[in-house]
Structures are given as structure tokens and as C-alpha cells.
Amino acid sequence: MRSLLFVPADSAKKLDKGMASGADALIVDLEDSISPANKTAARMSAFDFLKEAGRQAKRPRLFVRVNSLDTGLTDADLDAVVAGTPDAIMLPKAVGGASVTHLDAKLAAREAIAGIPENSIAIVALATETAASLFLTGSYAGASPRLTGLTWGAEDLSAELGAEANRGADGQFLDPYRLARALCLAGAAAAGVQAIDTVYVDFKNEAGLRHECEEARRDGFTAKMAIHPGQVAAINEVFTPTPAMIAHAKSIVDAFAASPSTGVVGIDGKMYDRPHLIRAQALLARARDAGLT
Questions:
Q1: Is the dihedral of CA 19, 99, 73, 80 positive or negative?
Q2: At 206, which CATH number?
Q3: 252-261 pLDDT, tens per residue?
Q4: Phi first, then psi: what are they for 246, rounded to 5°?
Q5: Same-domain status, 208 and 266
Q6: Are 7 and 226 in contact (CB under 8 A)?
Q7: Does residue 233 sit in the same domain as residue 251?
Q8: Residues 212 and 265 in one domain
Q9: Residue 8 in 3-state DSSP?
Q10: Local confidence band at 286 (pLDDT 50, 70, 90 cut-offs)
Q11: Burial 120-137 (b: 16+ CB within 10 A, else e)
Q12: Structural domain of residue 66, as residue ranges?
């Protein structure tokens, strides 16, 4: 999974565009893009969309971003959409692993009621949207077998911190948000789940988006969220392993396979050790997921 596109649940037109966008996953949004007055109608639209889109043989993964646990709206969101069997629920404003465990219990009860096998619906957590959450990014390991990814956000965090901006004049994230990004990355690695980079809000700036994707991939993120269908192609391109990257990773894996008792191998005059092997194996796994090997 490389690209995750946010789509408001109450816009049939945008949902249709999302299906044709090439995104690996659609995040059907019941939270920030839906006004309080439209929550009920949006839940019904989300369920109808899940049932219809879920029948398509070739489709993106279908996620639903529910309202956060502290709003009192989560149960109504889940009551409406679980029977539509989304692939995952995105939990905003998660405050550590306990929030994921809480959501797991809610999902288990509703899967049983709907006759859906337990753990069919995964969880992706937005791990850095509150100040308190920053101190708990290391607590996701073991929180739930449903947890498949962690991502982070700067907009809600900047509002809570009372900041005037979250990016500088050069478009780069300022220090508090770079910290949040790093903590999300480390938390995902500690939990053994996918690290997903946050959105790039300047959706007409493809060069800026591409640069941010390349930085994220360099640092260890393997996917990025999008707010506009026009961002999907660049995200997919950057996070898809190239033939050269795949060939290099294969050479490392093959070299270690040929010398299973060694801790270091030499390839074209360069030395590679076990951390290089782990990275190569992870890259090849992503390539297999993308159908490239």
C-alpha cells in the first residue's frame, strides 16, 4: 500500500473519482470533512458506498475514518459502517496503544453482531494529533492484532499547541511537527506496522509533493496520504520500488543466501551487513505487494 486518498463520505461524485484515482486505498471520511449536521447522512452514504464498491473485483482498499473516541460519535460511526465490511478503520486522535485496544473491542462486538469473522477489519491509527499522544507513540506494540499502520498529522496538533503555523516559509515542517513525524516513524517500527506519511496540503504543488515523498521514503515511510486525486500518481511512483532498487535488493538477499553463516558480504566492492539484508527483504516484500516480483 503506497497511497491513501481521503474522500468525504457525503460526496458521491468525489467517491467515484476516488475509485478511479489509482489510489491503493480510499479513506472514506466521517470526521473532519463532514459537518456535525451531516454526520448521520454521511454514515448512510458511507455504508452504501462500502457495499457497492466492495462488490467490485478490482478495487482499492476501503478504509473509514471515524470520529475520535473522545467525541462520543465513534459508536454511531461503527454501527453504521461495520456491516459494510471496510478493510480498515482509521482512528483519529489516537492516544497510544490503549486507544487501539479500545477500538479493537468495539470492532469485535460489531463483527460478531454482523456475522463477520473476528479481526476482519484492520486498524490504522493517527498517532500524533494531540500533545499527549506524542508521549505514547511507543505504546502501540501489542495493542491489537488488527493494527496494520501508524500515520501522523500536523493540522490538529498545531491547533492544540496554539501554533501560528506548522510549516516554515520554505514549506518544510517546523520542529514540533518534525518531532511528531519522527515519533510516528519510530512507533510504527517498534510495533512492526506500516509507517504512513501525512498529507501534503498544497495539492497543486507537484514538485513539493514529490520532494516530500522522496524524503519520507528515504527515512523509512512506505506510503503517504493524499487529499486530492491529482496527488496519487506522484505518490505511487515515488513509493514503488524501481527495477534498479529491486535488482540491488535481490543481489543482497542472494549474497547472504549463498553464505548463510556469514554476517557480512561484499558486492561490487562494498560491504553489506545484516541491517542491509533486513532493508532489502522489506523492499522486496513491498515490490511483491505491488506485483513487481
A1: positive
A2: 3.20.20.60
A3: 999 999 988 8
A4: -65, -45
A5: no
A6: no
A7: no
A8: no
A9: strand
A10: confident
A11: ebbbbbbbbbbeebbebb
A12: 3-239
